[in-house]
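S1.2 Input.
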Amino acid sequence: MDYQALYNSKLTTPEEAVKVVKSGDWVDYTWGPVHPVALDKALAARKDELEDVKVRGGTTLWMPAICEDEDAGDHFAWHSWHFSGVDRKIAAKGMGWFMPMRYSELPRFYRENLDPVDVVMMQVPPMDEHGNFSFSVAASHLYDMCSRAKCIIFEVNKNLPVVRGLTKTEWNIQNVDFVVEGDHPHMAQLASTPPTEVDRTVADLIVEQIPHGACLQLGIGGMPNTVGSLIADSDLKDLGVHTEMYVDAFVDIARAGKITGRRKNLDPGRQVFAFAIGTDKLYDYVHENPQCMAAPVDYTNDVRVISQLDNFISINNIVDLDLFGQLNAESAGIKHISGTGGQLDFVMGAYASKGGKSFICLSSTVKGKDGSLRSRIVPTLTPGSIATDPRTCVQYLVTEYGMVNLKGMNVWQRAEKIISIAHPQFREDLIKDAEKMGIWRNSNRR
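S1.3 Output.
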């Protein structure tokens, strides 16, 4: 087959391609780093012709053109699988909503639980000689999403890296309806913030617990990235990677010679991930790198898969937790911040792994708008807050005041351990709260 001829026959302008969108349609912008750009602008230009166009996306890295105008919500409704700062701004405009999920289930949502997608729009790297387009840094759920789509429009961007995988990580030109060639924008950058002293203290406690040959998962945020930086400077060796999100810290660890993947029970020698977001350092590293393996998220985040990887180390952070050990990683009361993502999957999978450990890290306090300190360890979760991880699943908790393991602990032991890693300024009040709640004993350390 002459794939280039087929490509040319489907090549059109963004303005022509988006004419397939009708009022009431469900349109999928796919996943953060590969959200469309030229197609998005062309669809926004049709605003006044359309109403009730429902768009799905997630981990949004820039403001979509369809969401920019004051009256955008009269025409488009934005739905996010995982909130970023941009998604929060869209929600604040009254036109954005969150879609709850365990990230590992998202491909199945498209296969079984969602109405077929009317139109898919996404950025892809240039087509290869076999007519295939890599899903680049966002394999995630895109194959199953495309499999249910009525119309697929690819926006080619030569700046996207090609990431290889074993299955469901590419799509053939034969199954694409339209191709557009946009302005080839540079990839969105997500740099990690400089570590604080608290970040370094917490990271030191965690790194001490990581054995040679461990398989790593790092969540998003300053603390997990700081752990990654310390691992790169450590004497650890033969580490592996199996993670949901691939971040810059993994590149640092790999370039320091710490990652070989030799001891991985699954996919030895390969760094496996569902999607990647970072800086050019990361995008350049993963491009056509045989050590990197893109995979669907129902593989990377499957508890049954994670549990087969010995010495699996999962490191994530949260917003706050209560004295029962319930963890909130996604909201401040009723204000939505992020999402469940894969945190619960990795917390459960790491504990089920032979020699595995799950670490949840946080600073003990946060400063309020008035500059006053507020404890992130609270008696009970704030009304409206989401219990991302139930108390039954939590293993290690780490703050700058120490590390505790809640596995096997009764309610008063849990309260005692959790209060022991709270900021000293708040411990006496937390003890009084625990007494009122009936989860404190006089024999507890005070």
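S1.4 Remarks. The radius of gyration is 23 Å.
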